[in-house]
Amino acid sequence: MTAVKRLLLVGPGHAHLFVLEALAQAPWPGVETVLVTRGRTQLYSGRVPGYLAGQYALEAVSFDLEALARAAGARLEPSGASSLEAERRELRLGDGRTLTYDAASFDIGSLPADDGVPGVREHAVPLKPLEQALSRLTSARETGPLLVVGGGAAGVELALCLQARTGRPTVLLENGSQVPRGASRAAARRVRGLLERRGIHLHLESRVTRLEADVAHLDSGERLHFGTCVWATGPRAPELLAASGAAVDAQGYLAVRDTLESPSHPGLFASGDCAGFISGQHVPKAGVYAVRQGPVLRDNLRALLTGSGTPRPYRAQSGFLSLLNAGDGTAVGAWKGLAFHGRAMWRLKDLIDRRFMERFQRLAEQRGNG
Questions:
Q1: Cα dist. 323→47, 67, 134, 208, 366 in Å?
Q2: Cβ–Cβ under 8 Å, residues 315 and 42
Q3: Degrees, nearest 5: CA angle 341-343-344
Q4: Structural domains for the chain
Q5: Quick one: pLDDT at residue 134?
Q6: What are the counts of helices (DSSP H) followed by strands (DSSP E) for the chain?
Q7: Rounded CA gap, 134 and 132, in Å?
Q8: Could you tell me which residues come within 8 angstroms of residue 124 by beta carbon, excluding any fewer than 6 positions away?
């Protein structure tokens, strides 16, 4: 009798949705799947700013993980993962139990870097984990200025969308020379003009050195008073990976080959923000890249566990259409050095996000409840 192999899907990230979809459509013979998550629902990051702007209901930005797991014939473990012992192929769950595995895939995202700034953990709302951030932002006292630290795409969207809903005085602070960080000149001009028209004060080349309960101290000596501070700086690797015994890259992300498999521990995979590619190809920490990794991860896990097919490499796209929600029914779109702003861009973003959400929500409804 053939032994059953156990697959652990740790985290409900974008790439893992494609694995769950494949399992729902055609179960992999001899494979037991366990989905390890923190909680029973997952927020879709692409629509969270829209929810904060009041454009979407909570159910329109959430995946029902229990229903998705049922659709895939998987078992849901909602207490999360606390540690990984890669050498022993063991994952410790948040409730203290331990699961062994034949293959494990991590799609747990990243965390905002605080760079050791005193007071951040006590007085700021970190953007990730998203579920915790959303809970705190929707229950936060809506008085006093809003301070968003971090001028990447996520920080810009949050500043625009929170200001659109609350009308609060808003400050966006970035330690670089432009926002969104890494954007084309055309996109940066569009966004800067939009921020000015909306009355959002932009602080460039500024760094927070210390946070107090309602004051941010900057490296210039300036003090910024705030009612709510959102910390949306660049990413850092989850601590769970560094202590796993598996190879990590220079930043602490789980090292992977282009097949998304660990070079040090066969059967261990990573995708999305928590993966560190060692081949030299440039893969930004952005959801659109994780979505493209999904089919590759699906095929390579199936090949490993069932012996059908051969592993194939992931090749990152050279660029992508960037769409930033402005929170007022418009969006900024950027593509190959061009940039646009208006309602048509928002309708396009809404259409893309809605199709992605509905694809997996429909899967849960049809099979998870059938």
A1: 11, 30, 21, 28, 30
A2: no
A3: 85
A4: 5-38+79-110+237-317 (3.50.50.60), 112-234+322-349 (3.50.50.60)
A5: 85
A6: 10, 25
A7: 5
A8: 114, 149, 211, 229, 230, 231
Amino acid at 335: W
The reported pLDDT for the residue numbered 140 is 61
Burial class (CB in 10 A: 0-12, 13-18, 19+), 207: middle
* pLDDT tens profile 237-277: 998 988 999 999 999 999 999 999 999 999 999 999 999 99
Cβ contacts of 56 within 8 Å, gap of 6 or more: 47, 50
Q: Provide the angle, in degrees to the nearest 10, between the axes of the packed helices 287-306 and 14-25.
A: 40
Three-state DSSP state, 145: coil
- Structure token digits, residue 197: 């028209």
Q: Which two tokens stand for residue 160?
A: 């625009």
Q: What is the pLDDT of residues 284-309, one digit of tens each?
A: 888 889 999 999 999 999 999 999 88
- Write down the pLDDT at residue 368: 43
Q: Which residues contact 324 (CB under 8 A, 6 or more apart)?
A: 153, 156, 157, 160, 180, 191, 331, 332, 333, 334
Region of 79 please: left (phi>0), alpha (psi -120 to 50) or beta: alpha
What pLDDT, on the 0 to 100 scale, is given for residue 309? 85
Q: How far apart are CA 349 and CA 50, in angstroms?
A: 11
**In this structure, what are the phi and psi dihedrals at residue 262, rounded to the nearest 5 degrees?**
-65, 140
Q: What are phi and psi of 317, to 5 degrees?
A: -65, 150
Angle made by CA atoms 246, 250, 252, in degrees to the nearest 5: 50
Which residue ranges of the chain lie beneath pLDDT 50?
368-370
